[in-house]
Each structure stands twice: as C-alpha cells, then as structure tokens.
Design goal:
Largest sheet: 7 strands, antiparallel
Subcellular location: Chromosome, Telomere; Nucleus
Domain Telomeric single stranded DNA binding POT1/Cdc13: 1-121
Mean pLDDT: 87
Strand content: 25-35%
Keywords: Chromosome, DNA-binding, Nucleus, Telomere
Number of helices: 13
Structural class: alpha+beta
Distance between the termini: 60 Å
Protein name: Protection of telomeres protein 1
Number of strands: 29
Family: Belongs to the telombin family.
Length: 618
DNA sequence: GTTTAGGATTCG
C-alpha cells in the first residue's frame, strides 16, 4: 500500500551516494504506538530526500510505499514521494523543511507535530551523541556540530578537515601531516585559533563529500570516532593527542551534512564562535602547544613571546595542583628530614611505580571504616552466586505490590529454578531499560545478560519474611557492567520491601538503593605507590584515587578497554619506557606526611593529595 | 519506473 505517515526520527543515515544512480537515506521512525518503521529513500536529487539533522526530528512522509523485506515491514520511496521535516524540540517554531514547492499544512497537521513533540519529549532520549569538543572522551563515537576552517587532500583514500566549535578538547588534537600549500582556508585565522581547531581524517566514501565542502560552512559530522594516541616529539618525550576519524561506510549513520545558516544549532554555534576570546586564549595556552604543531611549521609565528609564557613552558608539568598553589615548593631532601605530619608542594619525577599491572591497582574502599579490599574475581563471584542460588525461591514471596514475579525451571541443570521479580513503578511495569529486577538463583552469566537489558539487577534469595540481598561478598547492585559492592562491616541489611520507600522507581541511583537497603557502598579506587625523585632525594608516596587524579573512573576502568588504554598512556607518559629519567616529565604534586607506628619504630609515610593529570599540557 | 539498500561503528 501507499501511505502518508507522521513519525519521530529514531535513527537516520544522512543522504549519501549509493552504488547505483541515486542518493540514499535510511530513516527509522516511531510514534505513540511505539511501532517502528524503517524506510529507504532514493532520489537522484539530494534535496528531495528528507532534511533530517538529528534524532528526535519530526517527519511527514507522503506517498511512502509499504513492503515486506526479510519478514519486516519497511517503507520505501514511491513515485511522487515528498516529505516535511520539523525540529523535534518542544516549543520550537514549527517550520517545515522541504524541497516541495507546494504542500498542504493545516491546523490539524500543526497539532500532529506538537503532539509528536510532546510524546517524543518523554519517550525518545535526547540525542546524547551531540557533544561539544570540550566534552569528548577518548574512544567515543559522537556527532559534532562545527564550522569548517580548512581542508586538504592527504591521499586518495583520506582527506583532512580542520574544524572548530569554539571549545577546547581535553587533550590536544593530533596534527595530520600534509604537504605544504595544499591546505585550503584562511591560514592566518586557522593559526590564530589553532588550539581550538581539530584535525579530522575522513575516509573512502566521505572523501568526495569532504572535497566538495566550502570553507566557512557549518557542518554536522555524524559518528565521528575519537582515539587517544601517544605521540613522540623531539623536545618532549611523549604526549597524548586525540585523533578524530570519520571511518568509511555509513554504519550508524556515519556521514557529513551541511547545516543551513537558518538552523537553530548553527545559530547557537555562531554565538559561541563570536564570543571566543582569542587574544587571551592564545596568550595563555598557545605557546607550549605550538612547540609540537608540525603542520603549521610553515606559518611564521607572529608577535613576541612574553616572559610569562616562557616560564610556563619551562615549568611544563604532567600533573598540576587543584589547590594550595600559594605554597612554596619543598625539595625532597628537606621533607625527608622533617617530622610528620606536614603538607608540602613538591616537584619531582616518577622514577617508578607499583603495582605495574592495572587490575592490581584497583581496590574497593569503604569511606566509613576506611578498609580496603580486593575486587572479587569473576570466578569467585560465580561461586558466591551459586551458593546464593541453592535455596528454592519461596512462592509466598512472589508477586507483591512492589514487583511482579516469574519463575523459570532450567533444563538439564538439575531443575534449577530461577525467579525474576520485576519492580513496578506506582504499580506499573516500566520499560526494561528503566526497570530494576531482583533475581533468585541466577548464574553470573545469566545476570550479566540480564543487566544488559534491564536498568539494574539485584541478586537476592528468599528469606523468612522477605527477599534478602545476598551476602555482601556479591555485588548488591549491577548496572550494565558496573558492579556495586557494600561494606560487610558497616552495613546492616534491611528488607527488600524497603525499596518501596524510593519514590521514583526508574532511576535507581546506587547511593539511594544502598541507603534504603542499609548498605554502606564501597568505592572503587586506584591504589598505587609512586617513587618520586627530584634530584635531591627519593621518597615513596602512595596515591588513592577514585577519579580525581587520573580523571578516569576507577569503577569503570576494569570494564572499558578505552579507559585502560588511556590509563596505560598516562603512566607511559609519566614514566616513558626506554628513556632516561632526565627526559621524564616533571610532576607537580601535593603530599601529606603522616606517622605509622609498627612496634617500637615510628616511620613517616606520604600520600598524594589534590593533584591531577594536566590534560592541557601533556 | 531498474538499481541503489535493507540501521547495527574501525585499515587508517
């Protein structure tokens, strides 16, 4: 059949040249019925395809043909196809984007767009992939709204785009080597804002599009990939740089789209770009970085270098203090002679550190009793869960006002019973990604699979009067891959029915869940010993950090390859392998001394505080 | 009124 249909865009691929004769765009829409429809659009005319800029946009398709492909209903362009697209933001002006010269738009249509906006505002998650450069993380895919400042051919398969959005990346952008004179753009402007520009390499099918872009135009680049790389330079041992890649293909909507000047996001971007305080920015941050700017070596640096900037370069430090900047530096030899407790600002190099393996440095810390314990291994966890699974789910504890229950009996596993209790929100079951489930008798493998589907999982067992949290050797709450643990000494477990006291039963904030269940949550921390050397003496200081020092959450590092890579690169930057200590970077640290008594002997020990990796200078 | 693509991340 041929239909006219309204919907909210849930997914889309911006128009791209197909292998046939036409441009192609794939769009998935959804509406109040929660039914999704994936549509394929073809046209020899780029403008004739729906002008979708982001998920959440509202569309109206006319003369859409409905067909079946692989047992799924799909929409496809039929002759006379036409579309209208509207911004999805509540309250935004209702202005149709279309290439149609004439179309009907009644008061009823107006109401339809508004109704879809209202529905989308609570049912479609706001586009989390739209990220400013200051918020990009290493190893991330995101959509970038930016202005094109320069472009250059690199080779047949890749092309360089230099863009900015007025904010500064947490790590300096890599600089792609290009031949002199191939960079198209206002070179002096690019030089002026170089600390705010990033280099993006686009590959394969995107090269043709990139070539045709006009410098100065506003772009949205979809599914741009970041990667953190350690780079060797002549005057610094190593530093970290963020690479930006637009890989070949169109998976996940990878592509580039030019945004019209009338677009509201472009409007906002322009305001940000105009308010960028160039002279101040350049003076404070430009100099150190320009040392390793290779693609600009052909551009003469104008103006003189102030003393302040020179000093800043000489002081180049891989860590900085987050407080106590007023303190004078103390040489290590002086600290070693003094009695604890004291506080010092020091400047030293990291001669070595322990443990060498990352997973050995992550521990669980109780902020109440200050005890430290190991993160349970997967194998141990499986055993703990299996022990918890020996009791048979008690049918009296199923289907309460708090949850709906279901029981499964496994085959060929001794008739093991698994009970899953789905926690309701005001008597109604939420969508699975908002839903907390309680599971009795599940294996680690089953729990992991369920935690991918559901917001949160709590392993439980049947008690006398209520379900109970398992022994605190097991995580009391599992969210995605993150396991939340509680302190055995400090917690006094309360019944599961206490979850009823949480008003919003869809957000499941770990600290709130812990509180109502009487659990004192443990914190994931890095625990490491740094051997610091400033040439006057050597001192061992320990570091305990949840995410302030490395700016990497210890709770996630063991389950995230990208974070592990970042962590390894930071440590390699502090302590570059195969390099003499002279070439190591300086670390500026704040340390506290304290006394430890063991038997009759008293010893001074040291801990690093209020210090963080200097992202802007490494 | 053919074909293209038919959502589902990477060579770099």
């Amino acid at each position: 059949m041929i239909v006219n249909v309204y919907g909210v865009v849930k997914f889309f691929k911006p128009p791209y040249l197909s292998k046939g004769t036409d441009y192609c765009s794939v769009v998935t829409i959804v509406d109040q019925t929660h039914v999704k429809l994936t549509c394929l659009f073809f046209s020899g005319n780029y403008e004739a395809l729906p002008m979708i800029y982001k998920n959440g946009d509202i569309v109206r398709f006319h003369r859409l043909k409905i067909q079946v492909y692989k047992k799924e209903t799909q929409g496809i362009t039929s002759s006379g196809f036409a579309s209208l697209t509207f911004e999805g933001t509540l309250g935004a002006p209702i202005i149709p984007r279309t290439s149609s010269k004439c179309f009907n738009f009644t008061a009823e249509d107006h109401k339809m767009v508004e109704a879809l906006r209202v529905w989308a505002s609570t049912h479609i998650s706001p586009s989390s992939t739209l990220v400013k450069l200051c918020d990009v993380q290493p190893m991330q895919y995101f959509d970038l709204t930016c202005q094109l400042l320069g472009k250059a051919e690199v080779d047949g398969a890749s092309f360089l785009l230099k863009v900015w959005d007025g904010t500064r990346t947490p790590f300096p952008s890599w600089r792609v080597l290009i031949q002199d004179l191939v960079l198209e753009g206002d070179l002096s402007h690019i030089h002026r804002v170089q600390n705010l520009t990033i280099d993006i390499l686009v590959y394969d099918n995107h090269v043709q599009v990139a070539k045709s872009l006009k410098v100065g135009s506003f772009l949205r680049i979809y599914s741009l990939h970041t990667k953190l790389q350690s780079v060797n330079s002549e005057n610094l041992a190593t530093f970290l740089a963020l690479e930006f890649h637009l890989h070949g293909g169109t998976s996940y909507g990878r592509g580039i789209r030019v945004l019209p000047e009338s677009n509201s996001d472009v409007d906002q971007l322009k305001k940000v770009l105009e308010s960028v305080d160039l002279p101040a920015n350049q003076c404070l941050e430009g100099i150190c970085q320009s040392e390793h700017e290779d693609s600009f070596s052909n551009i003469s640096s104008s103006g003189s270098v102030s003393l302040y900037e020179v000093e800043r370069c000489q002081q180049l430090s891989a860590t900085i203090l987050t407080d106590h900047q007023y303190l004078e530096k103390t040489p290590l030899c002086a600290i070693l002679k003094q009695k604890a407790p004291q506080q010092y600002r020091i400047r030293a190099k990291l001669r070595s550190y322990k443990p060498r393996r990352l997973f050995q440095s992550v521990k669980l810390y109780c902020p109440k009793c200050h005890s430290l314990q190991e993160v349970p291994h997967e194998g141990d966890l499986d055993i703990i869960l299996q022990e918890g699974a020996t009791r048979t789910p008690d049918s009296k504890l199923q289907n309460t006002s708090l949850y709906d229950s279901n029981i499964w009996t496994t085959k060929d596993q001794g008739e093991r019973k698994v009970a899953v209790h789905f926690v309701k929100n005001n008597g109604i079951l939420p969508l699975s990604n908002d839903c907390l489930i309680l599971i009795e008798g599940g294996t680690l493998n089953e729990i992991c699979k369920l935690s991918n589907k559901f917001h949160s999982v709590i392993p439980v067992r049947s008690g006398h009067e209520d379900l109970e949290v398992l022994d605190l050797s097991a995580p009391f709450l599992i969210q995605g891959k993150i396991h939340h643990y509680g302190c055995k000494q400090c917690s006094s477990l309360r019944p599961i029915q206490n979850l009823n006291s949480l008003v919003d039963k869809t957000s499941w904030i770990p600290s709130s869940v812990a509180e109502v269940l009487g659990i004192v949550p443990l914190q994931h921390v890095f625990v490491m010993t740094f051997t610091l050397d400033d040439g006057t003496g050597v001192l061992e200081a320990y570091l305990m950090d949840s995410e302030k020092f490395f700016q990497i959450p210890a709770s996630e590092v063991l389950i995230n390859d990208g974070l592990q890579q970042s962590m390894d690169m930071i440590m390699d930057m502090f302590c570059p392998p195969g390099v003499k200590i002279d070439a190591y970077p300086w670390l500026e640290c704040f340390i506290k001394s304290y006394n430890v008594t063991s038997g009759a002997e008293q010893q001074s020990c040291y801990q690093i505080f209020d210090t963080t990796v200097a992202e802007d200078l490494i």
